[in-house]
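Recap from last week: sequence in, structure out.
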Amino acid sequence: MSPAVVEDYLAFLRARGLAASSRARALVAVRGFHAFCHDERAAPSDPTEDVEAPRVPQGVPKALSEAEVEALLKAVTGDDPRAVRDRAILEVLYATGLRISELVGLSLGDVDLPGALVRAFGKGSKERLVPVGRHALAALGAWLGPGGRPAVLAGRSLRRSDAEALFVSTRGRRMSRQAAWTVVHEAAVRAGLAGKVTPHVLRHSFATHLLDHGADIRVVQELLGHASITTTQVYTKVSQEHLRRSYLAAHPRARGPGERRSAAGPGRK
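Predicted structure tokens:
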């Protein structure tokens, strides 16, 4: 097989109407196969090596509104240990913008309740300190209190990695990414937000709401653990769209002829 054959295949997929993201995934699969042939089966060359991947347009993250976040955070009710844990997970995700892998990787020593900080280890094991707001602190305090984590682990013989974990399953094991994802999904269903919420959507919402309320983009970059400011700048598009909608809704000369405000201003008839 030659590079031209691979390029013809990508052209065929484009002609069939596949999006750039789908064509890029197809190329990843082809590359994986030929890398295996080259490394394990002594194939003389890799025909995909010089084939340029389709450019995938960078999408704008779909953040929740602040009202939707409030509904999600209130969706977990009850005072049993699992409910206490699930509230803490949701509050911490939104309060810190942690990736789901960073959240389940937290250990007890990474949480400083008096200092209102958590220590996260991001991509490449890069360490960063992230402030925690009062609602998340209260939720963490409840989880670490007698009716939360200690109640789950009482009488259990634990492995060291589980004994140090901040968030544990009902069986006393460090929570997996999938288990934490399920917590978010179940809360979203109860809040009427099924299909709209993932842990990463909470991360998007964290960043977008900070920028909406005037946070400096470089501060948001540091909080998210982005190596490059370019990665963080995608969130400014969301905030700019929010500002544009607010402007169009509020300014009397922002709309075209015949367009009217949805509600009259103070003192107007």
